[in-house]
Design brief:
The chain is mainly alpha-helical. 73% of the residues lie in helices and 0% in strands. The protein is globular, with a radius of gyration of 21 Å. It starts with 7 loop residues before the first helix and ends in a 20-residue tail after the last helix.
Length: 399
């Protein structure tokens, strides 16, 4: 099942999904609907709402599928213990090192933002948190919740791998047969959506939102775990599944678009007259999560088909993406505070924030990370020319 060379398509896909995090977290600052975060710009736009629900529908599912795929690859090459050691170095160690720094930076930026909102000047006043109803504990996983859950999934996978290997061959064959049916038939995504829709229907508007707690939530374990397990099994079937996803990528992209439009219509009804349609949130949950499966499969196929290689730009974007994921959040909040009093519309502010955050992230990567021990910690030792037969071995999948 080895491939002759590195799957650069997955590097490129992972990098694009990471960079979309900047746009996503800038857009949250300008949404028109209810927002649990205490800060928000005075200039809002429905375009920000659309950006939020659009990116959210496929970004994290793709991450977890890719993460599961590479965990299975590492188990095949290094065994469960070797996989776990590798993932702890690339996921748990950066989490432990960067979380304290990022929680302080993010909290300070949030307090500054609240001060600008309340008084129009830069400052810090802890009492503003209570006024904004933001009294919850700041000790949460923040935007690093993906890393946190991925660490747990790796631990569970390593613990269960010996049990899986001891199961009789007919059980393995049965699981493989079911997986092939679910991923390579038109009705498969419909079945895969059912458990996700059930979980999501308990959330507002049928859309699961990460809790951020250090105590793993059962709903989030089930929801994200399904995508992760899909990635684990995709590794076993890569010889047939990846060509199939490549062939059907446009079909799935179009089908996902149709279903996504249905979900948007449901969101519109929910925000205007939620009681007018029975079981509306369940319907939104099903259509939205069906679009997640369809677009996740479509994106994998599209990148395999059209972006199977890397050039210098794509490689740089890929190598910097882990660092960008880690540090972008306090940047988007800080620049949001700076732009709050700017006499400009929401689209202009969003564009300026995205640009400024991107520049700071890239400069800090080039100066502080790329040629330092931080770069080795996040991406492993850099190689000018990737070695053959190292497919995904050093590929870090993080959000």
């Amino acid at each position: 099942m080895d491939q002759p060379s590195r799957l650069h398509a997955f590097d490129n896909l992972r990098a694009v999904m990471m960079w979309l995090g900047i746009l996503l977290h800038v857009a949250i600052n300008h949404t028109t609907g209810t927002l649990p975060l205490p800060w928000r710009d005075s200039q809002t736009t429905p375009v920000a709402d659309l950006i939020l629900v659009f990116i959210h529908v496929f970004r994290m599912p793709v991450f977890f599928i890719l993460a599961g795929y590479f965990v299975a690859l590492l188990i095949a090459r290094r065994g469960p213990r070797g996989m776990l050691a590798h993932r702890m170095r690339r996921l748990a160690l950066p989490f432990v090192i960067f979380w304290p720094v990022l929680i302080v930076c993010t909290t300070v930026m949030m307090l500054v933002y609240l001060h600008v909102m309340a008084r129009g000047t830069v400052g810090i006043d802890m009492s503003l948190l209570a006024r904004k109803g933001a009294g919850a504990s700041p000790f949460n996983t923040m935007h690093m919740w993906f890393l946190y859950y991925l660490i747990w999934f790796c631990i569970l996978t390593a613990a269960l791998a010996p049990l899986w290997s001891r199961l009789p061959a007919p059980v393995h064959d049965g699981v493989d047969a079911v997986f092939r049916k679910l991923t390579k038939s038109w009705w498969g995504p419909l079945v895969l959506t059912i458990p996700l829709a059930i979980v999501a229907s308990f959330y507002r508007a049928g859309m699961l939102a990460p809790n951020g707690s250090f105590i793993p939530q059962l709903t989030e374990l089930v929801y994200n775990g399904m995508y992760f397990v899909c990635g684990l099994l995709a590794w076993r079937h890569q010889d047939t599944l990846l060509p199939y996803l490549t062939r059907t990528c446009w079909r799935k992209l179009l089908a996902g678009f149709v279903v996504f439009v249905v979900a948007l219509a449901g969101f519109k009804v929910f925000t205007t007259r939620p009681a007018s349609v029975p079981h509306l949130e369940a319907g939104i949950a099903f259509s939205y999560n069906l679009a997640s499966w369809l677009w996740s499969f479509a994106l994998i196929g599209l990148f395999l088909r059209y972006m199977p290689r890397q050039n210098r730009v794509l490689r740089y974007v890929s190598e910097s993406s882990y660092w960008v994921f880690l540090v972008h959040m306090p940047c988007t909040i800080g620049f949001g505070a700076m732009l709050y009093t700017l006499p400009a519309g929401p689209m202009t502010k969003m564009a300026l924030n995205v640009l400024a955050t991107t520049v700071v992230c890239l400069l800090s990567y080039q100066l502080l990370v790329r040629h330092t021990l931080i770069g080795v910690l996040l991406n492993g030792r850099r190689q000018d020319k990737p070695r053959p037969s190292t497919l995904g071995q050093d590929q870090v999948v993080a959000s």
